[in-house]
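hey so u asked for the seq, here:
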Amino acid sequence: LPSCSNTVHAEGTDLGGGIITRTPVNDQARIAYDLREMFENLPSDPNRAKNVYTAGFNSPLYDSLGNQLPNKRTIQSFSSDASGGTFTSEPTFLYHMAGLSNNFDVNTYDLHYLYADKFVLGALLNPSAGTLAAEAARALNVWMYAAHELWEGLYQCTMASTEGVNMEALGLTDNAKGAHSIDEFMAYWIGEGQKPGDSRGYALYALTQQAGELFGTLNPTGEAAANTNIKQIYENEARASLSTKDACDPGSDTVESLWYVNHSMLSQMYVPLLQMLIHNMLQGDVARVKLYAISVIPQVAQCRPSTYRRLKDALIDKDYDTGKKNDVLNDLQSVYGCLGISCKDIGAYQTDVLGACSDPPDSFPMAEYSPSTPVLNHAKIDLDIWNMKLLLSYGEVSYPMAKYLYLHGKHSHLPIATSDQNARNTIFRTLHSLAISQMRKKALPYFDEFVKYFNDAEYADNIILDSLDLKGRWGDSNSDITGVGTFDQRYEVITKIVQYQVVFIHLLAEMNDAIEDCRNQDINDNDGDVSSWDEIAAYIVGSMEGSDEGGSKDFNDGQFIWNLGNKRSVDFSTVN
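ran it, structure tokens below
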């Protein structure tokens, strides 16, 4: 790392490349010097490298009064904090635990809390591992802790926006309502003394530069596109949201904005990990394939379960077999969209060694049905359901994030022509929006019968939100009802209502709408000019069934009525 240090401003830290944080994070950025010392002492002096890792040398800590403490911030603590529950309400960490577990077994998540620390300590004991331990400390420990800072910022803003919360008791100030954590994220990503567009460094920014050089994803200034994108999201979205007069105040939309910021950031954070995984696969470096597989493949648990299982088996459970390279690459490329990135984001490896892949078209077949219009984004709302299931299965501590996912969405983008770029909540189609849509009134006579039964036009939405808030018939705090809902009951109520009320009623409405469009001789009278019947297929089948006839053979893949029909056909021996 260059010897120059970051400039500390009265209200922030100059991290270089035009990034001046809102709050001072110079001490956090100095964790890059611990990474540097680990790299410089490996493989010759693993004991010194271990001391730097476990005790910390360069990143000071302070008490609440601003007095420097004798101990230092450590890279090991970025992983070991997990054993104290630091990350257990955060989607990124929970997806990782689901991905490391055996078949999404929530009872085994705690066995993997220290996955990063165990890998680093194991590499330090291996005399032939070279700098693997330092690489792991960066790609596993620092990466996940940076992601933690994103979610910590959302949590702080949520608390600040809650009516009746004592701000002083929370330790939040007007200068740091959510902002400090996003600044810490940038400090951990860029590091102390990093020069823009320079791969000579030790933090995640430098790793992204190195990966960008391998895959030809540097922009004209020499900076990796993922680094540029992260900086732009920070400046144009995160800071903009947190700089408004009412940021994080009750009634503001800051929490919603940060939800989208976090997912945009995380998508770019996946890029260097995937690039380095592919690089080491093509180089045949089994040890580093394992490292980068552990860093990113567990995140694929939020995508199609069958694809995730194949990748986990090939890259984590077993040592990488170069003979399976093409199959593994095909599976990797198939999950880019789910992770929020494209083939262009990954690029072409060494220009002509491995060309850039092609993203699936919006008219990609669903269970062999080939739509004539782009409805893939409609179908991808099944991924929101799957992600909700993963979050809900962990426990009530993750209910708030499941609620955000339900309210604000993640995977199903609305057509640009119908989305208000000045209101981020309209960029995604959400399960909540389907649950309260006026479109439901077209689902006759079924919708009216449900409304009469529940005496509530918003019955599905209210049951879901009440259950997520631990209220109502299935909550655990309603004294008016004897035998309140259990955790397992709430899980089934929420997920089944989303699947077979929210989406199913919307499907029935789309069918009646299609008949109307046909009578009016305008079958494409829909947002984005898509075919009504293509929309119907999207909500019957979904994106996770795949393109094969009959859909996926793995019944965990599908989330819509098509999947339910396939499962019941086995139970009732009606498989054709």
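The chain has a mean pLDDT of 90. The radius of gyration is 24 Å.
lmk if thats what u needed
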